[in-house]
């Protein structure tokens, strides 16, 4: 046992085996949480704080065991077949069939790809997707992480957040509803909102009014998403369900009908044990 300068015993050093497992776990977590479809050797070294040679050695072992694999281009590391199989079995044991069945019914009923996503900080992680059977469709990408404001899932989570209510708009915050003597741009803060902030406020207000969020993809993508929040039973586990597809099929006149189906799917997932399990991934 070693003694610290203050005279108190210091923690026993970790064995090399335990340290290796901890480092490997950190790498696996970094790869799984990567928002860009995997991570490079340099990125993983920076994220975990491990030197490049250590990361390189551990990645070789993890790839050899099937826990990780290289991307087609070879420069990024992604979840391997063994890790994916472990994830599927874990989800299956905790109620994934119920979620998949609900998403399948939603995809069949709307003709579009249906997904469930979870909030992680200022991003949304897609957990499970069921693809549309249409030839032209959105390809759901489980494991992809996106900024909240760039997906219908995220807009729904912001608009109906019950913990901090970042998207809840008070009468004073409504467009044009700022304090009369503040001389501000409508948010009561004394500053003028940017066009992007104004557009976001309108999206949140519209979602709260409708009960579901609508967000068109980047210009030229031709995609539209529609989402509703899921009551997981815990204010700290925030989930939402969405459908995504071509704007040409998800036309304005269909929004209410599509929204009703998405809300019904979200309601049917309310309180399911799987929500708690998914929320911990």
Radius of gyration in whole Å, from Cα? 22 Å
**Main sheet: strand order:** 5-4-3-8-7-6
CATH-derived topology of the largest domain: Beta-Lactamase
Average residue-wise pLDDT = 79
Helix coverage percent: 25-40%
General shape: globular
Helix-strand topology string? HHHEEHHEEEHHEEEHH
How many separate structural domains?
Answer: 2
Q: Number of helix segments?
A: 9
Gross CATH architecture of the largest domain = 2-Layer Sandwich
- Percentage of β-strand residues: 15-25%
In CATH, what is the class of the largest domain?
Alpha Beta
According to CATH, the homologous superfamily of the largest domain is GAF domain
User: Main sheet, how many strands, which sense, barrel?
Assistant: 6 strands, antiparallel
Low-pLDDT parts are 1-13, 165-185, 274-281
Protein name: IclR family transcriptional regulator
Biased composition (Gly residues): 175-189
Domain HTH iclR-type: 18-81
GO molecular function, one term: DNA binding
Task: Please tell me about this protein's structure.
- By secondary structure, the chain is an alpha+beta fold.
- The protein is built from nine helices and eight strands.
- The protein folds into two domains: 16-84, Arc Repressor Mutant, subunit A, CATH 1.10.10.10; 94-279, Beta-Lactamase.
- The protein is globular, with a radius of gyration of 22 Å.
- Strand 7 and strand 8 (239-246) form a beta hairpin.
- The longest helix is centred in the N-terminal third of the chain and has 17 residues, at 16-32.
- Mean pLDDT is 79; it is low at 1-13, 165-185 and 274-281.
- Strands 5-4-3-8-7-6 form a six-stranded antiparallel beta sheet, sandwiched between helices. It has a two-stranded antiparallel sheet with strand order 1-2.
- Helix content is 39%, strand content 16%.
- The chain has helices spanning 16-32, 41-48, 52-64, 81-92, 96-110, 152-159, 195-210, 255-268, 273-279; strands at residues 68-70, 77-79, 113-120, 123-130, 145-147, 213-216, 223-230, 239-246.
């Amino acid at each position: 046992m070693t003694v610290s300068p203050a005279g108190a015993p210091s923690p026993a050093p970790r064995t090399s085996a335990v340290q290796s497992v901890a480092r490997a776990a950190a790498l696996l977590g970094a790869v799984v949480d990567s928002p860009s479809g995997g991570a490079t050797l340099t990125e993983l070294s920076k994220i975990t704080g491990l030197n490049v040679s250590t990361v390189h050695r551990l990645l070789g072992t993890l790839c050899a065991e099937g826990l990780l694999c290289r991307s087609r281009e070879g420069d990024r590391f992604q979840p391997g077949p063994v890790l994916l199989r472990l994830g599927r079995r874990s989800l299956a044991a905790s109620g994934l069939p119920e979620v998949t069945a609900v998403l399948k019914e939603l995809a069949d009923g709307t003709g579009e790809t249906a997904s469930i996503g979870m909030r992680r900080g200022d991003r949304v992680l897609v957990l499970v997707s069921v693809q549309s059977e249409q030839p032209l469709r959105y390809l759901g990408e489980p494991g992809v992480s996106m900024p909240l404001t760039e997906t219908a899932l995220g807009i729904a989570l912001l608009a109906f957040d019950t913990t901090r209510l970042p998207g809840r708009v008070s009468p004073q915050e409504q467009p044009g509803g700022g304090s009369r003597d503040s001389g501000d741009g409508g948010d009561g803060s004394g500053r003028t909102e940017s066009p992007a902030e104004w557009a976001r406020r309108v999206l949140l207000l519209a979602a709260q009014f409708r009960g579901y969020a609508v967000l068109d993809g980047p210009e030229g993508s031709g995609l539209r998403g529609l989402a509703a929040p899921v009551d997981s039973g815990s204010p700290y586990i925030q989930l939402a369900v969405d459908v995504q597809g071509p704007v040409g099929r998800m036309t304005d006149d269909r929004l209410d009908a599509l929204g009703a189906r998405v809300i019904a799917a979200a309601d049917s997932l309310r309180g399911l044990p799987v929500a708690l399990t998914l929320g911990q991934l």
